[in-house]
Amino acid sequence: MNQRPVRFRIGAALRHGLAAAGLILALAAPHAALAAATKGPDTVADTAALVMDAVVNISTSQTVAPSRSVPTPDLPPGSPFEEFFEEFFKRRQQQGDDQGPRRVSSLGSGFVIDPAGFIVTNNHVIADADEIFANFADGSKLKAEVIGRDTKIDLALLKVTPEAGKTLTSVKFGNSDMLRVGDWVMAIGNPFGLGGTLTVGVISARNRDINSGPYDNFLQTDAAINRGNSGGPLFNMDGDVIGINTAIISPSGGSIGIGFAVPSNTAVPIIAQLKEFGETRRGWIGVRIQQVTPEIAESLSLGRPRGALIGSVTDDGPAAKGGLKAGDVVVSFDGKEVKDMRALPIIVADTPVDKEVEVVVVRKGEEQKLKLTVGRLDEGDAPRAAEAGEKKPDAPAPTAGVKLLGVEITELTPELRTRFKIKDELNGVVVLSVEPGSVAAERGIAAGSVIAEVNQEATQTPKQVQDRIAALKKEGRRSALLMVSDPQGQVRFTALPIE
Question: Residue 137 and residue 126: Cα distance in Å, rounded?
Fold first, then answer.
């Protein structure tokens, strides 16, 4: 039976045992020159000697609550298992089943970025710790304090006080954007408590989204990283830190050579904010976005799927004040291309708060340039895409309406507004029913939904919807883009095929 892959954070804080991942080089090229190019560097010893002392072992301890005893099952008198269970639980109690608070410890990695004592690691390495220590290669051990942490990127900044007269070895960050797939890298850390362990591999992929947070943008490497490597550095061949090792993918807990690191260009501004403010200060513009699918791209005459489609705009937010509207497709932000929906939250978050930026949007087939001033994200909220596919219960049996595109629609009357509990500010045509198994049903349109626009034109009556769909057919369009709202006002866009 095939096992479903399971994703693990690799720090000891998660306490998963991970086997070492081997690096296998396929040297099958027939030409000597190509074989020489693929065998990798002859040695990384010189580079390792320069940076090894900057890598530290992070050890933590914490007090955990006492365990609770399991009550003896209430069995009927004379049950064949009564005597067995009584003896079993009596023995457990004699062995001290109810223990008091106890201390547990864990191990991870980190690295010094400033001789003054600033150390970078993963947040999950030091999460919930009562005490944190940095153990150096020379055997010294210094107590560390948390300067700041970022749970969304999984980073933490620590500070130790160097011993008098001692200068700490530090490393500097490199430019992770310069990395190419196939470039050689080396990881140094503390796997299984074996401090100062070095492994070598290559960059396997870039810009990986592993669904660990809203700003996923990981480097993927086959350099062996294991339990205890979390928070350790990933170096390029110049000895610059280009990533912070954070996670692996594994079917059963053993490493299979698929590891992930936070890129240095993502980490550097976060670490700078933690150092200056003790917290992160991310950019925010106040929009709810969704993916541009091929059907939506065709409906909006984009040519190909690109950008981030705005589903709704927060009232009085930076985007609203800058003139952005629902239905706009953001293709550029502050001079940076927005390739897809996932790119926009990352770009916005990295933009300084209060900076005025230019935003390029596609609106009704034409590009427009707008300006807005970036606000600050409330860390209690994270940017999220429209939740397409969310199912809602059907409403009571509706009156007859017009059937098209797998839905039955009618005008939004006061009676229907009350029946479906539709907010007063919503306007359009209301969905009375949805054909089971239709594309509309698969994409989450349900009874009570309100269709406000068809291909970015407002609709108030079923005839307007029919006329707009007929016009799209005449234009040779294959799908119609609907702006759909649930009764509570959550807006999203979906494209339905025109039959």
Answer: 20
Domain boundary among 277, 307, 329: 277
**Can you give the pTM of this predicted structure?**
0.66
For residue 348, give Cα distances in angstroms to 143, 230, 272, 383, 408. 36, 27, 17, 10, 39
User: Is 230 among the catalytic positions?
Assistant: yes
Residues 474 and 434 in one domain: yes
Residue 124 among the catalytic residues: yes
Instruction: Tell me the residue range of the domain where 370 lies.
Output: 286-376
Candidates 59, 106, 109, 154; catalytic one: 154
Distance, first Cα to last Cα, the chain: 42
Question: What are the average pLDDT values for consecutive 10-residue runs of the chain, which has 499 residues?
Answer: 43 36 32 49 88 92 60 54 58 56 73 95 89 90 93 92 89 94 92 82 90 83 86 94 88 72 93 92 90 86 88 89 92 93 90 93 90 85 42 43 86 86 86 88 87 86 87 84 86 83
Domain shared by 369 and 343, yes or no: yes
Residue 120's DSSP bridge partners are 111, 157
Q: Clarify whether residues 290 and 344 are in a common domain.
A: yes
Domain boundary among 257, 277, 297: 277
Distance of CA 404 to the CA centre of its chain: 38
Q: Which neighbouring-strand residues pair with 9? A: 247
328 and 365 share a domain?
yes
**Residue whose entry in the numeric block shows the structure tokens 């294959």:** 478
Question: Which amino acid appears at position 375 of this protein?
Answer: G
- Four-point Cα dihedral 68, 71, 72, 73, nearest 10: -130
Q: Are residues 346 and 429 in the same domain?
A: no
Count of domains for the chain: 4
177 shares its domain with 263: yes
Q: Which of 109, 124, 204, 255 is catalytic?
A: 124
Q: Any idea what the CATH number is for the domain that residue 176 is in?
A: 2.40.10.10
Phi, psi torsion values for 282, nearest 5 degrees: -90, 155
How far apart CA 279 and CA 272 sit, in angstroms, is: 10
Q: Give domain status of residue 263, yes or no.
A: yes
The partner residues of 134 in beta bridges, in order of sequence, read 58, 142
Which domain CATH number covers 328? 2.30.42.10
252 is catalytic: no
Q: Rounded CA gap, 117 and 158, in Å?
A: 8
Report angle CA 393, 287, 291 to the nearest 5 degrees: 65
Q: Which of 106, 176, 204, 230 is catalytic?
A: 230
